[in-house]
Specification:
- The chain has two domains: about 60 residues; about 220 residues, MetI-like (MetI-like fold).
- It starts with a helix and ends with a helix.
- It is built from 14 helices and no strands.
- The protein is flat, with a radius of gyration of 29 Å.
- Helix 4 packs across helix 8.
- About 75% of the residues lie in helices and about 0% in strands.
- The longest helix has about 60 residues.
């Protein structure tokens, strides 16, 4: 009897010792994870601060005069703040800032619309339609992403010159309606991940291929469509090279060319230039802040499908 009690007591002590050991190990593991998370977030915060410094300098320079911008030592905060730089930038003679904003919005919006429509149609065709050479054509389409844009620029320029479209927005907007290889790939992957039963049910109900695409598949593809629209808009908003080559009339300039022309003739008025640059950047910051979750969600959802 006493031996049983001693053995049971020893067994209980061993279990308690083992539980204490496991608890200490688990505590050390949790501590290491927390320290790793703190270190990772500290690193990310430091990198974020480094990326925000140029933006902060642009915004604060928009509230300074030239002497404050080039002051030594560096003056990190304007004293006093020159809020009139923004109003002067908006109404500077010879540089219709609001006109430039409208041109950029029209240009970027048209490119986004053309990119979304054309890429959705082509991506749906590669994903849901069966025809000879489909995979070969898709491979060729994706391989065009390896071709530098500058290689295609001269033949494209010659083409639009012979068509008599130089000096208009047609060379800038027209190619967007021919599709974008990256967004075609993105949308094709999404369409491949949709259940085929949806398409089969729509065909049984008598829906044609276009109606199936427009009323069934396209509404389901809202996340990647938003990604394509937002990214193409942001990429086009500050496009500089193509408008510089194709446009000649200052009244047609987007913001990128308007700021360049302003700097070329008023290089000494850095406060006004920074104010105009800040106003040109704010729409993109607002769009990205509003649509960030849609961008990340759309790309993640597309990557998990197909």
């Amino acid at each position: 009897m006493r031996q049983q009690q001693r053995s049971s007591r020893g067994h209980g002590e061993a279990e308690r010792a083992g539980a204490d050991l496991r608890s200490r190990r688990l505590g050390r593991v949790r501590l290491r994870r927390r320290l790793g998370a703190v270190a990772l977030h500290t690193l990310i915060a430091g990198v974020a601060v480094l990326f925000l410094v140029p933006f902060y300098w642009m915004v604060t320079s928009a509230l300074k005069d030239t002497s404050q911008i080039f002051a030594q030592p560096i003056q990190w905060w304007p004293t006093p703040a020159r809020w009139d730089n923004f109003t002067r930038a908006l109404s500077y003679p010879g540089y219709p800032f609001l006109r430039f904003v409208w041109n950029s919005a029209f240009y970027a919006g048209s490119v986004s619309l053309g990119t979304v429509l054309s890429s959705a149609v082509v991506g749906y065709g590669f994903a849901c339609l069966r025809f000879p050479g489909r995979d070969l054509l898709f491979g060729l389409t994706v391989s065009t992403m390896l071709i530098p844009g500058i290689v295609l620029f001269i033949p494209t320029f010659v083409l639009f010159k012979h068509l008599g479209l130089l000096g208009t927005y047609a060379p800038l907007i027209g190619p967007a309606f021919m599709g974008n290889a990256f967004f075609i790939f993105l949308l094709r992957q999404f369409f491949r991940g949709l259940p085929r039963e949806l398409a089969d049910a729509a065909r049984i109900d008598g829906a044609g291929e276009f109606r199936l695409f427009w009323q069934v598949m396209l509404p389901l593809a809202r996340p990647p469509l938003l990604v394509a629209a937002i990214l193409s808009f942001m990429w086009t908003w500050h496009e500089f090279f193509a408008p510089l080559v194709y446009l000649a009339d200052r009244g047609q300039y987007p913001l990128s060319l308007g700021l360049f022309a302003f700097r070329a003739q008023h290089a000494t008025e850095w406060g006004l230039l920074m104010a105009a640059a800040t106003l040109a950047t704010l729409p993109l910051v607002g769009i990205f802040g509003f649509a960030q979750r849609y961008i990340l969600g759309g790309i993640t959802l597309t990557g998990l499908k197909g």
